[in-house]
C-alpha cells in the first residue's frame, strides 16, 4: 500500500481569519505553518493572530451584539440560520472530512464521523433556538413574576485540537442559538476546519460579526481573548492547567466560564457482563482518535473472576492494532504533534520502567512515513491504582487494567482519580446498574455502552478536576444564557 501524501503539496493554501463577516490576515501579517501529523510536512498556513487581532474581533462581536440584528432577531430565524449552516456543512462534508483528517492525522472515517456530529449539532441547536423559555413564578397577590433567558453578550470559545469540528459545533450552536455573538480561537495545531466553517457561516447568511474566528498561539491569542474586558463569558475545552489560566484571566473581569478539562474515565466490567458485546467497545473507547479524546475510557476495572479472560481478550485485540496515515484509515492515526507523541511515549516508558506489566502492544504500519508522529498502542495490566499511569490523563492509546473484588471496591476505584467526566458500567444486574450509576462521580454514565461522541442531545461535562458547567443538549443553552427575573406590580 502506498500512501500518496505528496499530492497534497499541490493544494497548499493560505487560510485567513474571519472578522466581521470578512476573511482577514493577521494585522501583523504573520502566519503559522500548518503541518500534517501523518508525515510532518507543511501544507498550509494560518494567521498568527495576537492581542490586536483579538481586540478587533471582540469589537466586531460587541458591535454585532449591541447594534446588530442578531440578539433581537426572532429565535426561530436564528435557528434557521444555524440549520442552514448545518446544511452547508453537509454539502461540503467530503471536503471538511478530508481537511480535518489531514490537519489532525485522524483516520478519514473519524473525519467523516466528526462531520456527521457537527451537522447534528447545527440541526439540534437550530431546532432548539425557539424552544427554550423562561417561567412564570407564583408570587405575592397583585404581582406577576416571570423569567427570561437572555444571552450573555460576547462569548469567547477556546477549543482544542482533538475534535475541532465537533467542539466548535457545540460551542457555536449553543452560543448563537441563545443570541450571543462569538469569537472562537481554535488550537494552532488544528484550525483549518474552524476557519472553513467560519467561511460557510458567511455563506449561510449569519450577520457580520456574529461568528468571528481568530487563529494563533494559545499564549498570545488565547490569553488575550480570555482576558479581554469586553468578553462576557468564556467557554473552554482543553487541559486543566490551561483551564486554570483561563479562569484566572476571566476572574480578573468577573466573568463566567464553562470548563471541560478532560478525564481519566473508568469502565467497570462485572463478572455477569456480556463480554463479547463489551470487548469492541472497550477497545474503541481508548483507540478512537488515537486516545486523544477527553472522554477516552482509559481505565478498565474488571471483576477478579473474569480478569484473566478479559485481559487476554483485550491483549489479542491490542496486538492487532495498527497506527498509520489518515488516508490509510487504519485503527488509529498519528498523534497531533511531536510534543504529544513524546508525552505518550514518556508515560509508557516510565510505567514500563516502574515494572507495570505490558500485556500487549500494537504496531505502526510499515508504510507509514517515518516523519509522522505515530505511537504504538499499549495495554498495561494489573496496574496499581496509585500509579501515575492510573491517575494522569495520557491522551494517547494507552489502556490500563485493574482487578476488583466487589461492587464497593469497583466504585471506590472508579472514583479514585481527580477527574470525573465519563464512566461505563457493564453488568446484566438491573439494580446494580442503577446503584453504581448513581455512586460514580462522572458527568455521563453509560450502562452496557460507551461513547460520549455523537449524542449531541445529551448533557456533557465534568465533576472534580474535569471541570464545571455543561455542554451539549439543552443544558448548554442554560450555560450560554443568564436568567433575568421581571416583577410586575398591578394591584
Ligand atoms: P491546551 O493548552 O489546554 O490547549 C487547548 C486550547 O487552549 C488551545 O486552543 C490552546 O491554543 C489554548 N491555550 C493554550 N494556552 C492558553 C492560554 N494561556 N490562554 C488561553 N488559551 C490558551 O492543551 P495542549 O497543550 O494542546 O495539550 C496538552 C494536554 O491537554 C494534552 O496532552 C491533553 O492531556 C490535554 N487536552 C485535553 C483536551 C480535552 O478535550 N479535554 C483537549 C486537548 C488537550 P494553542 O493550542 O494554539 O496553544
Ligand atoms: Mg495540523
UniProtKB/TrEMBL annotation:
<feature type="active site">
    <location>
        <position position="260"/>
    </location>
</feature>
<protein>
    <submittedName>
        <fullName>Aldehyde dehydrogenase (NAD+)</fullName>
    </submittedName>
</protein>
<dbReference type="Pfam" id="PF00171">
    <property type="entry name" value="Aldedh"/>
</dbReference>
<keyword id="KW-0560">Oxidoreductase</keyword>
<dbReference type="InterPro" id="IPR016163">
    <property type="entry name" value="Ald_DH_C"/>
</dbReference>
<comment type="similarity">
    <text>Belongs to the aldehyde dehydrogenase family.</text>
</comment>
<feature type="domain" description="Aldehyde dehydrogenase">
    <location>
        <begin position="29"/>
        <end position="486"/>
    </location>
</feature>
<dbReference type="InterPro" id="IPR016162">
    <property type="entry name" value="Ald_DH_N"/>
</dbReference>
<dbReference type="InterPro" id="IPR015590">
    <property type="entry name" value="Aldehyde_DH_dom"/>
</dbReference>
<dbReference type="GO" id="GO:0016620">
    <property type="term" value="F:oxidoreductase activity, acting on the aldehyde or oxo group of donors, NAD or NADP as acceptor"/>
</dbReference>
<dbReference type="InterPro" id="IPR029510">
    <property type="entry name" value="Ald_DH_CS_GLU"/>
</dbReference>
<dbReference type="InterPro" id="IPR016161">
    <property type="entry name" value="Ald_DH/histidinol_DH"/>
</dbReference>
Amino acid at each position: 500500500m502506498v500512501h500518496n501524501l505528496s499530492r497534497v503539496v499541490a493544494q497548499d493554501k493560505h487560510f485567513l481569519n474571519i472578522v466581521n463577516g470578512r476573511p482577514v490576515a493577521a494585522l501583523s501579517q504573520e502566519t503559522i505553518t500548518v503541518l500534517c501529523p501523518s508525515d510532518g510536512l507543511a501544507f498550509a498556513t494560518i494567521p498568527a493572530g495576537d492581542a490586536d487581532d483579538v481586540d478587533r474581533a471582540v469589537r466586531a462581536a460587541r458591535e454585532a451584539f449591541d447594534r446588530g440584528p442578531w440578539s433581537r432577531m426572532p429565535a426561530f430565524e436564528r435557528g434557521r440560520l444555524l440549520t442552514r449552516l448545518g446544511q452547508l456543512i453537509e454539502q461540503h462534508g467530503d471536503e471538511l472530512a478530508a481537511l480535518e483528517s489531514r490537519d489532525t492525522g485522524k483516520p478519514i472515517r473519524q473525519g467523516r464521523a466528526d462531520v456527521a456530529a457537527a451537522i447534528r449539532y447545527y440541526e439540534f441547536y437550530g431546532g432548539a433556538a425557539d424552544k427554550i423559555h423562561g417561567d412564570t413564578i407564583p408570587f405575592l397577590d397583585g404581582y406577576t413574576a416571570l423569567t427570561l433567558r437572555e444571552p450573555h453578550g460576547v462569548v469567547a470559545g477556546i477549543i482544542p485540537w482533538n475534535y475541532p469540528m465537533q467542539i466548535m459545533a457545540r460551542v457555536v450552536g449553543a452560543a448563537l442559538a441563545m443570541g450571543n455573538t462569538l469569537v472562537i480561537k481554535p488550537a494552532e495545531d488544528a484550525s483549518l476546519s474552524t476557519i472553513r466553517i467560519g467561511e460557510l457561516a458567511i455563506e449561510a447568511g449569519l450577520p457580520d460579526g456574529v461568528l468571528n474566528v481568530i487563529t494563533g498561539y494559545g499564549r498570545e491569542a488565547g490569553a488575550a481573548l480570555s482576558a479581554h474586558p469586553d468578553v462576557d463569558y468564556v467557554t473552554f475545552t482543553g487541559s486543566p492547567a490551561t483551564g486554570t489560566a483561563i479562569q484566572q484571566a476571566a476572574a480578573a473581569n468577573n466573568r463566567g466560564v464553562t470548563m471541560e478539562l478532560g478525564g481519566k474515565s473508568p469502565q467497570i466490567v462485572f463478572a455477569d457482563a456480556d463480554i463479547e458485546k463489551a470487548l469492541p467497545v472497550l477497545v474503541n473507547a481508548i483507540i478512537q482518535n488515537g486516545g486523544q479524546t477527553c472522554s477516552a475510557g482509559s481505565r478498565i476495572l474488571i471483576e477478579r473472576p473474569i480478569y484473566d479472560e478479559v485481559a487476554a481478550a483485550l491483549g489479542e485485540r491490542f496486538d492487532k492494532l495498527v497506527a498509520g496515515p489518515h488516508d490509510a484509515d487504519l485503527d488509529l492515526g498519528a498523534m497531533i504533534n511531536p510534543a504529544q507523541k513524546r508525552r505518550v511515549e514518556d508515560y509508557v516508558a516510565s510505567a514500563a520502567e516502574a515494572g507495570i506489566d505490558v500485556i500487549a502492544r500494537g504496531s505502526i504500519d510499515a508504510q507509514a512515513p517515518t516523519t509522522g508522529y505515530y505511537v504504538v498502542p499499549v495495554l498495561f495490566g494489573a496496574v496499581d491504582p496509585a500509579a501515575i499511569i492510573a491517575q494522569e490523563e495520557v491522551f494517547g492509546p494507552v489502556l490500563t487494567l485493574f482487578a476488583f473484588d466487589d461492587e464497593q471496591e469497583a466504585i471506590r476505584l472508579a472514583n479514585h482519580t481527580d477527574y470525573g467526566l465519563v464512566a461505563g458500567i457493564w453488568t446484566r444486574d438491573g439494580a446494580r446498574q442503577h446503584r453504581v450509576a448513581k455512586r460514580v462521580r462522572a458527568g455521563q454514565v453509560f450502562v452496557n455502552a460507551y461513547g460520549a461522541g455523537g449524542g449531541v442531545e445529551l448533557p456533557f461535562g465534568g465533576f472534580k478536576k474535569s471541570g464545571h458547567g455543561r455542554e451539549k443538549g439543552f443544558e448548554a443553552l442554560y450555560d450560554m444564557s443568564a436568567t433575568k427575573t421581571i416583577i410586575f406590580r398591578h394591584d
